[in-house]
Predict the 3D structure of the following.
Amino acid sequence: MLIRLENITKTYELAKQEVTVLNDVSLNIFEGDFVGIMGRSGSGKSTLVNLIGFLDKKFKGTYYFEDKLVEQYTDDDLSKIRNENVGFVFQNFGLIKNMTVGQNVELPLLYAGISNQEKTRLVAESLEKVGLADFVGQSVKLLSGGQRQRVAIARAIVNSPKFIIADEPTGALDSKTSVDIMQLFTDLNTTSGVTIILVTHDPNLMAHCNREIRVSDGEVVL
């Protein structure tokens, strides 16, 4: 089992009132899954994936990652686990515009303690997987939206993470490009075995997933 959440509750204090964002959420994600987390804006799905991606450890309940209790890790431990095990892909791409394609893809490897030669090889492999093998020296400023998202995906997979969180990855793309990007995620899942957690409000994207988790008002509705 890759990820196991048991009775997760997340609250915030807003204007001296306690607001519950996640309420008693339990779910499992297995290696090789392509999971779609569906929900309207404000349903709690982004809070849920921030927690799954080790960006938030302030919650009630238990989170097991590879059968180890997450709350036992320090913040430094979690940063290391996040860098080595999670790839993030965002709606707005999250690229550094004054860097080249290759420099953006290389970012997760900067603290990996590997040689420059190995970094170059891994970056080239990742860009080849997303169909941008010849773009390593290109400025990201010159790329289309679809190409930028491919660079973001290459960056997410460059250190062979255990899972990818794709948060509305087609939200800024036209419909044809969206199809291409979703096919790329499908190929990564089926050929490379990458576990993918897709966050979306678009039911059309669920066709690419083998499981659906629906979130409504902070609860998982099965």
